Amino acid sequence: MEAPTLDSMMEHHRFPDDHISLLLLFLYSPIGLFLLLLRIFIGAHIFLVSCVLPDSVRRFLMRIMTSVLGVFTSVSEPHVRDKSVKIYISNHRTYFDHNVVSLITSCASPSVSCPPGFLCWARGFLELGTPGSRAQLQESLKHYLSQTGSPPLLLFPEEETTNGKKGLLNFSSWAFSLSDSVQPLTLHVQRPLISPMVTGCPWVMELFWMLFIPFTIYQMASASFPISKRV
Q1: What is the pLDDT of residue 231?
Q2: Rounded distance, CA 60 to CA 44, Å?
Q3: pLDDT digits (tens, 9 = 90+) for 174-218
Q4: Fewest C-beta in 10 Å: which of 111, 136, 202, 223?
Q5: Are strands 227-228 and 181-190 parallel, antiparallel or unpaired?
């Protein structure tokens, strides 16, 4: 079987190729613009609520409230966390994967590119100071994991989003150096009429399309047991 090319794993086109789907998208546009404005207003209130609620209550209520924004989450199998696991690893589909997974299970995801500040915090990233070298990032993450009661880290070893159709990018090994075992997760994303993610598109534009389109479905699955480096 021929290995997939890098280009085949990326999504370069937002809109469908067939004329019927394009016509449906055009006819839907007035509704989409209305939903966009309504969801921006509602989303601002959801953000304020999420800032004051404790984690356990927040995740339950946020899964309900984000459905109003058109984001639906499901788990293909009941997610049971192994208490010894401190690292989740997942394929990378959209800029909002870490937000969605955190609604399902308690976790924190660092940003390797977003500088610390309000925007980084508002997007739901774990702030670790000014991004530096990979070695500095690893040391910061190890210090985080050493703290008692800290939620598991959610990492995306691909370090880039893909279309999820052909395969995975080569995993960066640094994510596996932080712990003796990791819990694999898989994400599958579905959206009508347009692609869930286009390579190279800014996250603000992706947020626009998420609020514009009727719904986006994220489905998470987890392995039944963690993977250990000693095995």
Answers
A1: 42
A2: 18
A3: 778 887 778 888 999 999 989 998 988 899 999 999 999 999 999
A4: 202
A5: antiparallel
Helix (H) or strand (E) holding 27, with range, is helix 19-52
Tokens of 141: 């993450």
Percent residues over pLDDT 70 in the chain:
87
Which residue in the block uniquely carries the two structure tokens 């993977």? Answer: 227
Q: pTM of this prediction?
A: 0.86
Is residue 34 within 8 A of residue 85, CB to CB? The reply is: no
Instruction: Give the torsion through C-alpha atoms of 112, 165, 2, 224, to 10 deg.
Output: 80
Written as six digits, the tokens of 115 are 């500088």
- To the nearest 10 degrees (0 to 180), the angle between helices 55-66 and 19-52 is 150
160's CB contacts (< 8 A; 6+ apart) are: 92, 169, 199
Alpha helices in 53-164 (DSSP H): 55-66, 97-104, 118-122, 134-146
Q: Which two tokens stand for residue 218?
A: 């994220």
Q: Is residue 175 within 8 Å of residue 87, measured between CB atoms?
A: yes
